[in-house]
Design a protein that fits this description.
Elements lengths: L2 E5 L3 H13 L3 E5 L2 H10 L4 E5 L7 H11 L4 E6 L9 H7 L4 E4 L4 H13 L8 E2 L1
Length: 132
């Protein structure tokens, strides 16, 4: 059974993702901050990390860089609904620094499950595509 780590500061979204992924048969851990996610990974590494990009404490971009350095074989999926007023595509930045996939919020849970299944099976590659 593949282990998935959800890093999301919204308790509602974190709970929905966790419940759906557990129904799909995955072992799921969840954290609300980058620091918590790093502690969970040190105890029991995940095969896939789903991370929000904008959170208090340690943002998702910082977390992606750190996770990529510590756990190079773990696939990372960046999630964000935030739009930059300067035109910066933070989901593209996340892919450029190591996320395998990026999904724009709001998304369908089925889309995230599909991406996680691809990554767990090895079909997702090290770099994926963004979903609008």
């Amino acid at each position: 059974m593949a282990r998935i780590l959800i890093l999301e500061d919204s308790a509602d979204l974190r709970s929905m993702l966790q419940a759906r992924l557990e129904i799909e048969g995955f072992e799921v851990a969840a954290a609300s901050s980058g620091a918590d996610a790093l502690r969970l990974m040190a105890r029991a590494p995940a095969e896939v990390i789903l991370t929000d990009l904008f959170m208090p404490d340690k943002d998702g971009l910082e977390t992606i860089v750190e996770m990529r350095a510590r756990y190079p074989n773990t696939a990372i999926v960046a999630m964000s609904g935030w739009q930059s007023s300067q035109g910066v595509d933070y989901l593209k930045v996340a892919r450029d620094i190591g996320a395998a996939h990026a999904v724009r919020k709001p998304f369908r849970l089925a889309e995230v499950v599909r991406i996680v299944r691809q990554l767990v099976s090895g079909a997702g590659g090290s770099r994926g595509t963004a979903s609008a």
